[in-house]
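Lay summary. Proteins are chains of building blocks that fold into shapes, and those shapes determine what they do. In this project we predict the shape from the chain. Here is one chain we studied, written as its sequence of building blocks.
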Amino acid sequence: MAARLTGRPVSGERVRSGGLAEVTLAGGPVVMVKRGDGLEAVRAEVAGLRWLAAARAVPVPEVLGHDERWMVTELVPTGRPDAEAATRFGRALAALHAAGAPAFGAAPPDGPRDAWIGLAPMRNESGTDWPHWYAEHRVLPYLREAVDLGALRPGEAVVIERVCERLPELAGPPEPPARLHGDLWSGNVLWGADGRVRLIDPAAHGGHRETDLAMLRLFGCPHLDRIVESYQEAAPLSDGWAGRIGLHQLFPLLVHAVLFGRSYAEQALTTSRNFADM
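And here is the predicted shape, written in a compact code that computers can read:
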């Protein structure tokens, strides 16, 4: 596969998982070969990586070749997280967000409307008003599916629906669409051996910049306080942003409820109760 997509012979291979392998090109570097697990998943990921790279802010692995099912990217040697790299990453993440997007929900250029976040489908429908767009295209679709799958009971869903109704008053000052990674949990933050952070596995789209930061906090990230501090120095967040973290976490929590079940649904409910009757 790597030989066909790069035009170079392969001299070795080490499988990491069923859909991921490290491949040594003859006389050349080791590269990553990844299989897309859903329709247009590779197209969406390639377009996302290239859109993030175009901002010239946070580096991403270079795409060396792809087809409809497989992609080849450079392999980045990894190191240990450190505070200096975190400081640089915070500034770079602010610059990535500031590169902007045409609209909330805008797909990367050449990216499909029907994309993916991890193993869950994610539709990129454009909107101009973040609270309404976020409710309609990021929270409610996964809420409905979680109910259909039995991860949430219909009576429980009412609490999250109430938060969606109140989003215009809870969302804080209006912000322009930011260029989001879109699935920014710590596993997609790659600490390079050269002291630079790379981003991998994006679900890139136009969104609210607080969403990326909220996902970093939801699943934990090394040196997160340092990342946020340097982000704030480069591009201060609106007043009250820390109190809105839970709003932005509803989207990934419900995605995880759809994929992994009840425990994430309970987290989404607990978070929602903090906002439903504020």
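What the prediction tells us: The chain has nine helices and eleven strands.
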